[in-house]
Predict the structure.
Amino acid sequence: MTEANFSSSMDKTSRLQTGFGRYIVSLKYALHVITHPFDGFWDLSREKKGTMAAAHTIFILFLLTYVLKLMYTNFQFIMVPIQYINVYQRMASLALPFLVLCLANWALTTLFDGKGRFRDIYMGMCYALTPYVLIQLPCILLSHMLAYDEADFYSVLISFSEIWCAFLVFVALMEIHDFGPGKTMISIVATVIGAMVILFLVMVFFSLLSDAFAFFASLYKEIRFRLN
Amino acid sequence: MKKRLQLFLFAVAFVLILPLCAGAITDGTNSVYTYNFDYWGEIMESPDAYRVEETITSASLGLDVAMESPQSLYVQGNKLYIVDRGNNRILEMSRQNGKFSVDRIIDRAIGAEPETFNNPNDISADQEGNLYVADTNNNRIIVMDSQMNYIKSYIKPTDTTFDQSTDFLPTKIVVDSAGRVFALATNVNKGLIKYEPDGTFAGFIGANKVSYNMWDYIWKKFLSTKEQRAQQASFVPTEYRNIYIDEDGFIYATNTTFNEGELLGDAARPIRRLNSLGDDILIKNDRYPPIGDVYWEEGLPDNNYHGPSRLYDITVMENDIYVAVDRMRGRVFGYDPQGILLWAFGTRGNTGNSFNGAVSIEHMGTDLIVLDEYAARLTVFRTTEYGQLIYKANEQYLQGAYEASAATWKEVQKLNANYNLAYIGIGRAQMQQDDFEGAMENFKKAYNRTNYSKAYRYYRQQWMEKNIHWVVIGVLAVVIFFVVRGMIRKTRWEVNEHDRSKLFKQHG
């Protein structure tokens, strides 16, 4: 490459290092990550190739894809009682476990020499969801072009995207924490258990909170009743 | 830090919102009289398919001795038999101009030993008009001619396959056109007892399979002590509750003892259609098998009955529509030959259109007669316009009159917009008229996958034929786009290369 070309590309890179340009580049980097997961996830946070904004974007797209899939996939392939669907509830039922699992993973891997910070884990997980969006979003359209006996095309694509995502999650955790495959496997199992513990604690906390609240509320009522 | 806080707040918000979003599904058991299911098995209130024509009690019949715990109905032609078990007699009634009157009281078989009945439970008749009575506590099925003269009786088979240690207590009987007798008996769980016309025992047919799950088996076999095992119920096949023989000689059997969890998966099969080998050949083309109600809740606070439907009796009309009666909720379920629920109606109660102890159901034409054991009352139901339209549309479709059938379904739709079969019927007629888009619309409304898929294939073919030029143009446009882009890139690269070589020349 010539000096002129090189310097112009340097300009381009430095321009892209800040602001909106960097966001777009980091979003495009998702395509690199899902095709080159081992290098991709390593560079994601260590080389600052990924941004939180891009991660949020992918995450929101993931939730939207899920909801759109439920609502607009042809009824031949997905039978959803559309009259009972609560979009926010469905999104929450996906987002909450996701965040809790990230949290549990962070909490546990910190104890086991994991190199990743919480934002690294979150970012990695979000980037790993890219195939879900890329494949399942067009699948909604595809579902309107297929008859029921051609459902195999559809289901193969869907399972392919899910397997890809699962693989990416595995590689992401491996690279982010600099673990070997065995340790990653163990950390995943531990993460699931950890997430359950977190949910249990949250539930206990809220039930205690509501009990405490009810106690003070009745105390207040009682006093008001006595004063009258 | 700020972002982390945001994240945390999000998480908390989700936890708080979650319980608010939870929806509740109720089975709507108490408020609705006539209904059908939507695709999800939800109860959709519908117009009445049947209304009470009359109620018949001992008083309205002018009986000297009131009926006591009547058990069974049997219809032949315009004759209706009621087995009045408590009085050890059978009432023979006939219907003239829509009115029932008692013709005679059958309380003995002249010349039999003993002559009178003891706890009779069922009656049936063959083509010649001979009457067959399941005379339970006399341990016999007694046959007499139409003048009540004793002919013969079927007694306990002496065959080794028959358990000789218990009493022979026949409870339900049917007679086929060849004079073969099929009977159910208390304590016999090997299926239907079959007798040849000459009275010899011809074995059992249609035995229920023993049902137990793996855990039960392990628990019983390995984890229980001998004493515990003696206390536990043994794995035995269940007995049928009732039987009915249709015009083609197939036996419909109902079964009320089953594992609740196996109903929806079609393992319990409370309604069966048995062929001569005893195989169940009932057609089930609906999302839910014919089991009565598809949602049930345990012990609702405002009713005293819970659990799934218990179908105590079944009858099959001339148009192959079968109707079963659920004693648990006092409901009547009508299914078409494909196993699709046409309507369900009824409730528990003491009024004429509700039941407390529905034990038996029969039909005369399309009229239904339901017997309430506790109230000792018969209720005669007659179709409404809505019910008639459903039957008419079904028959027209079976005869191949698709357009007429669609017109009738449209009438049904006017009365009940929630009727899936109407959408399917109209969609099928539209398919015949090559209106695939309209058919798809209707099949979609009924959530009918298979038919929608068929219609869609035709529609897609049609669309392709109509728009093939656009498809070709589109594909060409894409190809041209890439070719041109490639050419432009190549040219640009060549220009760059040229510039570079010039640069090298200058500096080199």
